[in-house]
Amino acid sequence: MQKSIQKYFVLFALPGLLCFAIAFLVPMVMGVVLSFFKFSTVTDGTFIALENYRRIFINDDFTSALWFTVQFTIVSVITINMGAFFLSLLLTREVKGTNLFRTIFFMPNLIGGIVLGWIWQVIINGVLLKSGVTIVSDPKYGFWGLIVLMNWQNIGYMMVIYIAGIQNIPHDLIEAAQIDGAGKLTMLKSVILPSIMPAITICSFLTLTNGFKLFDQNLALTAGDPGKQTEMLALNIFNTFYGRSGFEGVGQAKAVLFTILVAIIALTQLRLTRSKEVEA
Amino acid sequence: MSIQSQNKRTNTVLVIFLSVLAILFLSPILVVLVNSFKSKLFISNEPFSFPNPDTFAGSENYVSGSQKIKFFNAFGYSLFITVFAVIGISLVTSMLAWYLTRVKSKFTSFAYYLLVFSMIVPFQMVMFTMSKTANMLHLDNPVGIIVLYIGFGAGLGTFMFSGFIKSIPISLEEAAMIDGAGPVKTFFLIVYPMLKSTAITVAILNTMWVWNDYLLPYLTIGTEYKTIPVAIQYLRGGYGAVDMGAMMAMLVLAMIPIILFYIFAQKYIIRGVVAGAVKG
């Protein structure tokens, strides 16, 4: 069978692989190579070895974007997952209107990042109006604004994953724990949390990588203002590429570092929480 | 007090709490809706008040906004690109996944891992080289961009389809081939119908991504063909003040299709998200 399928490589595999090569693979290889070149289009490079990488750190905008991104990601991963888990506990109790609540909480997730950013810019500026400031007056407004926005967008998404996890816990497991006299806290710690470890793995993975790679919301909410202080990594790289010419190579070198960082974080996180799944 | 009536009371408290939360969740959208009918000068001064005879602007914001950014053209581009990209991704990646799963060789497993790896690579890594490549290959138009979407969507699509294909017994396909069906017939008559639920999941996840995507269309076709997110961000313009009236109205128009889609496909969307997460 394998051989007869192989004859149809051109029909089955080639279209997908070709699109993949054009959109991702070739640009990826070119990107890595070009990070060692000085260039402004992709065909006019001169080899400069690690010069681009050195120039990343000439000023501290990359490191400050990194620091902002790390802080943002830590806070948002914790708040989104705790909020989503809390809501999923409430919505798996037998109360009226569970489906309606679930529908409402999930909805913001369908709205795109650009639209979300502008919605929250209006709301946050409205709230700050009394104090006579706007969201770009102080980076802390931008930071917490972004946190609120991401919670609003992502809590519902993570919530439906946690709900599915909780609903999959076998009933006899819960009953057995109840007969053994497990209190609510023991139930949560020894029955529910270990059983939904796969949901925790995937939700923390999604929030972690979403947070680290965030771009649209950052652009529409503050665009990095005031003075690049709320600029996250993805936006910093974008601005390096397209902000002024002559820095394309530096942008590409930043992008390579960014990719390595995201890959390390994603793989470490998966390994860490997956190992807990086995224990449970 | 009996346990039952105690339960009833905590449930009432819970429903009230969830209702308040639901209203809070919906309020940002309502604020935008209300403000879209106020004249632009009053949006930043009194964002949380209802329009009164002095501030009411009627449909002015809708008219001026949709003229400024050619909203209905943007809607057309977004719809065209999303529909064909999603169909393309579902078809191309299901065929690719079948080929890579059924043909066992070093090449196919290498291609598979490369595709999976592409899912965690941030877009900034390839955006510059990819948009230059797209430009050189004349893919910088609403038809060509579909090739790029298939390429970027190939990772997730192939991953999810092959996850499912691995779980269906190969004997069914072998039997069909022994009966004289070629690979094309076997795939489209035997395998493809079984992939339906995965295809819905892949389609839902990709619809949410492509419809809301900003950077890819901005970089490749953004100057000539603006999709909705690109058109919205375009309202920010250069350095002048943003016309918040037009912005509010356009945010409302941008959300209407999403909310309609959600109302009609809600069941599939939530199921798709859960299925996507579990397999991810």
Please describe what this structure looks like.
Chain A is mainly α. Chain A contains 14 helices and two strands; from the N terminus they run αααββααααααααααα. Chain A folds into two domains: 51 residues; 222 residues, MetI-like (MetI-like fold, Orthogonal Bundle). In chain A, strands 1-2 form a two-stranded antiparallel sheet. In chain A, a hairpin with a 7-residue loop joins strand 1 and strand 2. The mean pLDDT of chain A is 89. Chain B has 280 residues and is an all-alpha fold. Chain B folds into two domains: 59 residues, no CATH class; 166 residues, Orthogonal Bundle (MetI-like fold). In chain B, helix 4 runs antiparallel to helix 10. At the A-B interface, helix 1, helix 2, helix 3, helix 5 and helix 6 of A face helix 1, helix 4, helix 5, helix 6 and helix 7 of B.
Please specify the SSE layout and strand pairing:
The complex is a heterodimer of chains A (280) and B (280).
Chain A: H1 2-6, H2 9-12, H3 14-34, E1 37-38, E2 46-47, H4 51-56, H5 61-91, H6 98-106, H7 113-128, H8 139-167, H9 171-179, H10 184-195, H11 197-213, H12 216-221, H13 233-243, H14 248-279
Antiparallel strand pairs in A: 1-2
Helix pairs in contact in A: 5-8, 5-11, 6-8, 7-8, 8-11, 11-14, 13-14
Chain B: H1 3-35, H2 40-43, H3 60-68, H4 71-102, H5 106-118, H6 127-136, H7 144-165, H8 170-178, H9 183-194, H10 196-212, H11 215-220, H12 228-234, H13 244-279
Helix pairs in contact in B: 1-13, 3-13, 4-5, 4-7, 4-10, 5-7, 7-10, 8-9, 10-13
